[in-house]
Specification:
alpha/beta, globular, 11 helices, 334 residues, two-stranded antiparallel sheet, 10 strands
Length: 334
């Protein structure tokens, strides 16, 4: 049993084949398929999710992605990029065996980021929010099945990215006019909205323990995510409040996975030492007093994606996270 390390989502540059080779080689047991938004529209987190969705149309407007009747050229480009990504993954992962994590934008952030046909966030319309959620659930199941077929040795898992979850929980999402904020979502609403995604993947054969929600914003509501049935939660150490520590302890004691964002991503290309990264992890883990038994449930990561970085420092950061994981292992065993 040992602490792991991994990335989160986005990666710098435009060379997907190189990025996939890197994650497969540098992240044993915790490899993932990175997003490369530097390739342009459709390669970002929202574009990838809408490229995976097949039952709803979307177009890219000056203000961002918007729901439309039928697919647009921008959405078709996003779909083509995703297909190309999967082709590259299949080629690079020949003979690969081990954990392989896929990432898609989560349903709440997707609804907050995508606009209704007449403008304003889809989150303002319960019907559109449900439609996006259900479309994403199908897309998630299809993506997992496709990758499992392409890379038969992989233990596929799925991460939903929810950077706007905290704002949704506190009523921080603005209306179309920008003059008011949408109502805050309570625990039961969030649990009820996320649970169908976990259930859909379970029905498709993916164990819920292989699902994860990542949020690098304050107030992700860890208890709500656990209650929704996800197998793991990813958080930014700097955004944790004291109350979150109790939720993290319960999560780990319940056998779920914690992705602990110990590496700040701003300012870009700034490399902390492995000791500093380990110290940040231990500042969260030591007070829990759970000992070495939780080591294999902890994965050290950057706080957020690394798209703004350059490739060499980003690669070095992953390696330092690996060194930090070894230090945390030793310290937890004392």
């Amino acid at each position: 049993m040992s602490v792991g390390h991994s990335g989160v989502g986005s990666w710098p540059g435009t060379d997907l084949a190189g990025a996939v080779r890197l994650t497969l080689g540098e992240l044993p047991g915790a490899a993932y398929v990175p997003e490369l938004p530097g390739r342009g529209p459709g390669a970002d987190m929202i574009g990838r999710a809408l490229g995976a969705v097949t039952v709803l149309g979307a177009d890219l407007q000056p203000t961002g992605w918007r729901l439309v009747e039928g697919s647009s050229m921008a959405q078709r480009r996003a779909r083509a990029l995703l297909r190309d990504d999967l082709d590259v993954l299949e080629e690079q992962a020949q003979g690969f065996e081990g954990g392989l994590r896929l990432t898609l934008t989560g349903p709440l952030t997707l609804a907050a980021a995508v606009e209704l046909p007449r403008g304003g966030p889809a989150l303002a319309d319960p019907g559109a929010t449900r439609d996006l959620r259900d479309a994403l659930a199908e897309a998630s199941a299809d993506l997992v099945a496709d990758v499992a077929r392409r890379v038969p040795g992989a233990e596929v898992s799925l991460q939903w990215d929810e950077p706007m979850l905290g704002s949704i929980r506190t009523g921080g999402v603005r209306s179309a006019s920008g003059l008011r904020r949408l109502p805050a979502w309570g625990s039961q609403e969030i649990i009820g909205h996320l649970r169908p995604l976990v259930d859909r993947l379970a029905a498709a054969g993916l164990d819920p323990s292989r699902t994860l929600v990542h949020s690098c914003a304050p107030g992700p509501g860890i208890d709500d995510l656990v209650a929704a049935g996800v197998g793991g939660v990813g958080v930014d150490v700097d955004q944790l409040a004291r109350a979150d520590l109790d939720a993290i302890a319960a999560l780990l004691e319940g056998g779920r996975i914690l992705h602990l964002g110990v590496a700040r991503t701003v300012p870009v290309d700034t490399l902390p030492t492995a000791d500093a990264l380990a110290g940040r992890a231990l500042s969260v883990l030591r007070p829990l007093e759970l000992g070495p038994a939780i080591a294999d449930r902890v994965v050290l990561t950057p706080a957020c994606g690394l798209a703004g970085w350059t490739e060499r420092p980003a690669t070095q950061l992953l390696r330092r996270l690996g060194s930090a994981a070894g230090i945390v292992d030793e310290e937890l065993s004392r």
